[in-house]
Amino acid sequence: MSDQFKARPHDPYNVYTSPNEAILCLDSFQSMYTQMLCGLLNRDQVLRIGAIFASGLLRAIRFLQLNWKLLVHDIETGTLNPKITDPSIRECIFHLLQPNTELAHFIAKKCSAENWEGILKRIWPNTKYLDVIVTGAMAQYIPTLDYYSGGLPQCCIVYASSECSFGLNLNPMSKPSEVSYTIMPNMAYFEFLPHDQAEPPFYDESPSRLVDLADVELGKEYELVITTFPGLCRYRVGDILQVTGFHNSAPGFKFVRRKNVLLSIDTDKTDESELQSAIERASLLLREFNTSVVDYTSYADTNTIPGHYAVYWELMIKDPEKGPTREVLDRCCLAMEESMNSVYRQGRVADNSIGPLEIRVVKNGAFEELMDYAISRGVSINQYKVPRCVSFTPIMEILDARVISSHFSPATPNWTSERR
Known about the structure:
The protein is of the alpha+beta class. The protein folds into three domains: 126 residues, no CATH class; 101 residues, no CATH class; 148 residues, ANL, C-terminal domain (GMP Synthetase, Chain A, domain 3, 2-Layer Sandwich), CATH 3.30.300.30. About 1% of the residues have low confidence. This is Indole-3-acetic acid-amido synthetase GH3.1. It comes from Camellia lanceoleosa.
C-alpha cells in the first residue's frame, strides 16, 4: 500500500500483468480472480510466475482449477464476472478486456483435461522459472510444483520476513536444497546466538553469547537476532541458520529450521526439520502409487492414553484407481516413526509413554480452507504459512471434519538401549 509501490517507476525487468487496483484489493477473491484473468489475457508475455511462499502459488493453481469456467466466460464474452464489485477494478478491466474466442477455447481445452501435469508451462509457454520460496518447511511443496510446472526451475531469490529483509541468494538458479543466502549488512544490525542441540536451561542464552555478523564460523549453526531501523531491539526471529560460506566478507547462510519444538507427548521433543524428514521418508512409499503429500500439519493428541502424534495429510493421487492401499498408509506411519529421534522411539518401545503414530488423511482442499479461515481472521495471504503443528480448537474442527481415513503404525520402531 506504500507510495513507493503505487508510484514506482517503470522497470522493464519487473512488469506485472495486473493493474495496481487488482493487486491492492483487500478482497482476496476479487484480487485473485482479477490477477488470474489478467495473467491469462497476457499469457504470451509472462516470463515468470511466483508468490512469496510455495503455498501461495499452489493456492493460485487451485483457484484456477475451481474458477476456470468463469474466467473463460469472461474472456469469450469480454465481460467481467458480477462477483467482481470493486469499482476501481471494474474500471481498469473494462479497458483491458475484449472478446477473444480463440483464447477462451484454448484455455478451456487445457483446463478441462483431467491431467494437469505441466499446466503452468502449457498455459504460459514462455515462463522461464518459478519465483517462489521453497526452502525450509516449504520444501514439502517441491514435488507438487514440479508436477504443475513441468519441472520449471524454482528460484529462491530473497530471505526476508515481515520484520525486515535479511539476505539474497547470489546463485538464484541453484537447486532448492543448495540455496544459501548472503546477509545484507545494511538492512539491519545482525547478531547470532550459537545454537546448541541441548535446550534451555542446559545452555546459556544470555546476550553475552551473541556473535556479530563478522565473527560467525563456517559450518556452525546460529539463531538469528536482529535490531531493525523501525525499532525492534535484539529480536529473536526464531530461525536456525548454518554458515555455508562467504561472499567477500559477508557470510552466507542456509536455512535449517525453525527453533521452536513442534510436538511433545512426554520427554520427547520433535522439531520442524525432524517432522519434515519423517514426512519425506514416508513419502517414498507413495511413489510407486503415483501419489505425493500435498500438505501436512500435526497435533499432539493427549486425549488417548498414552498420547500420540497425529499427522494430517492431504494427498495428490494422480491415478485414483491405483492409489495407495490402507496397508501402505499404515506402513507410512511406521516409516515416520523410524525417522524420529531416539527419545521418541524409547518412549514408544521401552517406556510405553507414547502411542502409535497416526496419519489422518483429509479430503482435497482441506488446507486451502485452513488458509481461508486464517485470512478471514486478518492474516495476510502473502505472509500465510501452513502451521506445522496445531492446537487451536477451530482449526482442529476444520481438519477433523474433513478426515476421510485414519491410519496407525502397525508395529513399534527400532530402538536399542545404549549404556553410557
